[in-house]
């Protein structure tokens, strides 16, 4: 479990720093040091939030998905994703939500395939 948490945290942090830099923020290449530090602190906090969200998804998957239909859960997640994409104006936050959505979909697909073969 500790390895999974560390992996989630590390991947989330790297993804956030890269997306923040690639989507026009440019804080990695700035000459003004406090912006760089604030950007890294912001990415650390967001990565911690992502880790918590992904661990909550793991608990949800283990507790509730055996009783629910995975297709219904995925349809609800897709609707939430579409609504959030429409509401958010920032490309950075859309990229963040896309990262979470892809991870949850991949995990759900693996869960579905594992339980389908049983």
Give a brief outline of the structure:
The chain has 118 residues and is an all-alpha fold. It has 4 helices and no strands.
Which features does this protein show?
about 120 residues, mainly alpha, globular, transmembrane helix, transmembrane, membrane
Outline type: globular
Low-confidence stretches: none
| Rg over CA atoms | 17 Å
Total helix count?
A: 4
Helix content: over 70%
Query: What order do the helices and strands follow?
Result: HHHH
Characterize the largest beta sheet: strand count, sense, and whether it forms a barrel: none
Mean pLDDT: 79
Strand content: under 5%
Calculate the terminal CA-CA distance, rounded to whole Å. 25 Å
Structural class: mainly alpha
**Structure summary, number of beta strands:** 0
What does this structure look like?
- With 118 residues, the chain is mostly helical.
- The protein contains four helices and no strands.
- It has helices at 2-25, 33-63, 70-87, 91-116.
- Helix 1 (2-25) crosses helix 2.
- The chain is globular.
- The model has no long low-confidence stretch (mean pLDDT 79).
- The chain crosses the membrane at residues 7-27, 39-57, 77-104.
Element layout with pairings:
Blueprint: H1 2-25, H2 33-63, H3 70-87, H4 91-116
Helix pairs in contact: 1-2, 1-4, 2-4, 3-4
């Amino acid at each position: 479990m500790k390895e999974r948490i560390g992996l989630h945290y590390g991947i989330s942090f790297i993804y956030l720093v890269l997306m923040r830099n690639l989507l026009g923020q440019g804080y990695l290449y700035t000459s003004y040091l406090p912006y760089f530090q604030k950007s890294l602190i912001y990415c650390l906090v967001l990565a911690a939030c992502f880790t918590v969200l992904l661990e909550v998804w793991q608990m949800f998957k283990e507790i509730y998905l055996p009783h629910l239909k995975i297709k219904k859960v995925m349809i609800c997640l897709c609707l939430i994703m579409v609504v959030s994409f429409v509401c958010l104006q920032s490309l950075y936050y859309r990229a963040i939500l896309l990262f979470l959505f892809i991870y949850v979909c991949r995990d759900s697909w693996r869960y579905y395939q594992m339980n389908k073969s049983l």
